[in-house]
């Protein structure tokens, strides 16, 4: 009897595409190519499908969880959607804790997969408050926290899949990797893999400028710095203004036909800065998710 893949098998192997217009004359004259990895093509619509699957499969393999158990996670959105999908696929109950200022599309997507949502006041600590609440609920026996911020299965997913895909898709020609920094799982896993293949590859992290709030891009207080983060793997940091990320999201859709969220656009802002300085470079950035989960925020509304 013929066997067929499941949703699990559809995670990863996302396209890597060349930007045609946004790099502009300066980058082109310098011989630079800017490539976007379309992680919105994953089944739950974001790069977080990879670590969500990795964390659940890893916990199962270690005997920490079994189908029917309750999982808990604090999330700013994409990880929650990915975990809700994976929990549904693997037979778990899912409780997601998130600040109440995130888009309605994200909440609706999590609920569609059967997850229970707990909204916390964004004005009272945001993600830090959500992370503390998740720990408290686990201590009270309400479920198992996967903890994307300290779980090594998060960057491992990117070390085993995203990094090798980028290396193969560029035939080893990649010179710069650019990623938004949130949990830091993507930049840690990909960065570690690429540095093993070629130590000269530059790893560039996009972080929010002072006062900017960009969904999916964070600069954590010292007490909440993800345990998976290793600063030695990041060669360069680019501070991104919120207005620049939002404007770039609109340009990316209108000029390249890639509708993505603000964290992807923030990474592109950083990638274009690199493209205006480097020479004969192949620069790849992560297009973290799809822009359709930001429509209600007004991000893509016609600008005055």
Annotation keywords:
304 residues; alpha/beta; six-stranded mixed beta sheet; four-stranded parallel beta sheet; 38% helix; 17% strand
What's the helix and strand layout?
Layout: E1 16-18, H1 24-29, E2 33-38, H2 49-61, E3 70-74, H3 78-90, E4 93-99, H4 104-112, E5 116-120, H5 126-139, E6 144-145, H6 153-169, E7 176-180, H7 185-197, E8 202-208, E9 236-240, H8 242-256, H9 262-275, E10 282-287
Parallel strand pairs: 2-10, 3-4, 3-6, 4-5, 7-8, 7-10, 8-9
Antiparallel strand pairs: 1-2
Helix pairs in contact: 2-3, 2-6, 3-4, 6-7, 8-9
What does the model show?
InterPro entries: Cys_synth, Cys_Synth/Cystath_Beta-Synth, CysM, P-phosphate_BS, TrpB-like_PALP, TrpB-like_PALP_sf. It catalyses: O-acetyl-L-serine + hydrogen sulfide = L-cysteine + acetate. One of its GO terms (biological process) is cysteine biosynthetic process from serine. Its cofactor is pyridoxal 5'-phosphate. With 304 residues, this protein is of the alpha/beta class. 38% of the residues lie in helices and 17% in strands. Strand 7, helix 7 and strand 8 form a beta-alpha-beta unit. The longest helix has 17 residues. The protein is globular, with a radius of gyration of 19 Å. The mean pLDDT is 94.
Percent in helix: 25-40%
Structural class: alpha/beta
Low-confidence stretches: none
Q: Would you list the SSEs in sequence order as H and E?
A: EHEHEHEHEHEHEHEEHHE
> Would you report the number of β strands?
10
Averaging pLDDT over every residue, what do you get? 94
How many whole angstroms does the radius of gyration measure? 19 Å
- Compute the separation of the termini in Å: 59 Å
Oligomer: single chain
What can be said about the biggest beta sheet? 6 strands, mixed
Principal-axes shape call: globular
- Number of distinct helices: 9
Content of β-strand: 15-25%
Trace the largest sheet across and list its strands.
1-2-10-7-8-9
GO molecular function: cysteine synthase activity
GO biological process, one term: cysteine biosynthetic process from serine
Pathway: Amino-acid biosynthesis; L-cysteine biosynthesis; L-cysteine from L-serine: step 2/2
Family: Belongs to the cysteine synthase/cystathionine beta-synthase family.
